[in-house]
Amino acid sequence: MFSERLEIAAARVAGHLRDVLADYPDQPVVDAMRYAVQGGKRLRAFLVMEGAALHGVAPEQAVQAAAAVEALHAYSLVHDDLPCMDDDDLRRGLPTVHVKWDQATAVLVGDALQTLAFDLLADARTHPDPAVRIALVSSLARASGAAGMVLGQAQDIAAETAGRPLTLKEITALQANKTGALIRWSAEAGAVLGQADTGPLRAYASALGLAFQIADDILDVEGDAEKAGKRLQKDAEAGKATFVSLLGLEAAKVRAQNLAAEAEAALSPYGAAAESLREAARFVISREN
Amino acid sequence: MFSERLEIAAARVAGHLRDVLADYPDQPVVDAMRYAVQGGKRLRAFLVMEGAALHGVAPEQAVQAAAAVEALHAYSLVHDDLPCMDDDDLRRGLPTVHVKWDQATAVLVGDALQTLAFDLLADARTHPDPAVRIALVSSLARASGAAGMVLGQAQDIAAETAGRPLTLKEITALQANKTGALIRWSAEAGAVLGQADTGPLRAYASALGLAFQIADDILDVEGDAEKAGKRLQKDAEAGKATFVSLLGLEAAKVRAQNLAAEAEAALSPYGAAAESLREAARFVISREN
Q1: Statement: B2-284 belongs to CATH 1.10.10.10
Q2: What residues of A are in contact with residue B115 (Cβ under 8 Å)?
Q3: How confident is the model at residue B225 (pLDDT cuts 50, 70, 90)?
Q4: Distance between CA B263 and CA B285 in Å, rounded?
Q5: Mean pLDDT in chain B?
Q6: Residues A199-236: pLDDT tens digits?
């Protein structure tokens, strides 16, 4: 059920991004944007679509917010892959944008994908009430800017030159910014669109986001690079502190399992309707990519 | 009168950006953001403040939109200065962000400044009516993304490897995207905030934006690098087509003067109240930086 619904959400948001970008000028930079938004797990899109469904929001509205967060996520990956950042040449099993095009194009593609995210949210198709759209714009800006995702990325880079590994507390705070903020936004967006209480989905996403990152660190150690579609064991090579290096592999697995259980428990107000979100929590800690 | 009002707008927007960024986490990436938004002519901020004043919009609201467009402009400069783009080490008379910090920080600073622009517009201090804020978010996204400023930058980069210089028509279209779109947004923002007809300010800004770019090309040939605070004669060195190379220096000057006059004429509905905007049009074609 979960994997099916994930696939449906992924196909829907991919189609929507394709449609939206079809209206853009036929230029190499737009081709590279189309390339950059392809593929990926689409977990953030799924969270938006499921959260929206729980609140009776029309999929035509939800897909706008889902496409926005996937565009924003794609921008962060394109910039993160740059030689001056993580220097990755493979992403989602394909050459990264700066490898397939060049660095200048990769900078501009990331810039334009961020803009696209806010453009999508501001569009009337997202919600008829401008106040709801503004709430989404504002919260996405907070989640992704210098007090959210970008702060986490900067903290991550700073950690490499800090001369000492991060503590568990520091790495938890870093990840809450770097990946957690966007996952929280995704899970909450449906409640915002439904003008409902965001509390339960926020609690769910906070636990889910941390479980996701711990699982990522486990995958970096135990994973299969081919299945993951990206280079692995980079953190160990770089001598970076991770949840695995700090907690040990077995304790990290237990912690991820506890967080997944915590995420599931947070959904109790929704009863059986939230079953696929519960499955998502179990998926996040067992995925191979 | 104009230079005084430009100075007041510049000081006001600089103070506002300082206040806004004071609330951000004390991190190197935020220090670099504070650095990147310093200085500059603040022409875009001035256009917002003056356009707002013409429509009776409170300066406390206008300064939010002015700060937003200056943050967005600063992001584009930080990314444009990167080694993979224009590779500039001097901007506004100071070392560029990637020189003073590093390239990764410059990428993140640009990313976060773009986010800040949308965050500022979405804030209730910009306008009590969310519909007005959404209109500003939406129009800024259109002006700056892959159908606006970023498209212009990509066209500019593509021109370098095109094997032939651009035609006058192509360079006019390129500049309308690269610098024109943001200048138009700035001039129109006051009318949007005042929920008034944007037509006259749009016509003014279209002529002003092109005059600005022609003047930039003239400055690149005739200017004093010290006064300009940046490296000059780059276009000639790179063999790039400019308004000067296409029209000749004297004809370019005449064209800029005609456009400035056209910009002034577009303001006739505002009468004497728009005098400082008229002076701005004259300033744009006579500036030394």
Answers
A1: no
A2: 114, 141, 144-146, 150
A3: low
A4: 12
A5: 94
A6: 999 999 999 999 999 999 999 888 776 666 666 667 66
